[in-house]
Amino acid sequence: MSFVRSRSYHHGDLRAELLQRAEATLRESGVDGLSLRQLARDLGVSHAAPSRHFRDKQALLDALALVGFDRLAAVYGEVGPTGSFSERLHAVARAYLDFAIDNPALLALMFARKHSPSSGEEMLAAVGRAFTVPIALIAEGQAGGEVVAGDPMRIGIAAIAALQGLATFVGSGFVEAENVDVALTETITQLTYGLRPRD
Length: 199
Known about the structure:
Elements: H1 2-10, H2 13-29, H3 36-43, H4 57-77, H5 85-102, H6 104-110, H7 120-130, H8 132-143, H9 152-172, H10 180-195
Helix pairs in contact: 2-3, 4-6, 4-7, 5-8, 5-9, 5-10, 8-9, 9-10
């Protein structure tokens, strides 16, 4: 049994299992509950085994953040390219809100400014991939005269900040689950008004 486990991990499965278990721990106990030694114990491997994939806890956190950004990119990628600007904005906003509600601890880690310098370029690339769809949507809205002129990234960040605030309200119970759709529609309505070109 241990031989099979060892061979499986030799081919790269340990890294994936470490990340999977680390994300579960992140959900349960937060960043402070994560340790490479505990992950090793949880997976039944030697305490040194995780260090072959992550030199320290920060490297593990960086990898988790990268996983989060790639997952968010995949979520956005599932949003259909058809419909009016308002309909597509609503779909993108819904996708982000669902992700934020389902992954609060991971999202907090993704946006923490504690990523190691060595992950800089890789992290920037992951962030760029994650927000390609919403930023492109803002740019398309500008081209169609539906969104105020300006840097699409800056405008997109403002919109995402509003959605993150709504996700925080939902997560804290300030907005009850049965009222999420109404709150999202109202948020998108106000965002749409705010994004319109100025006269």
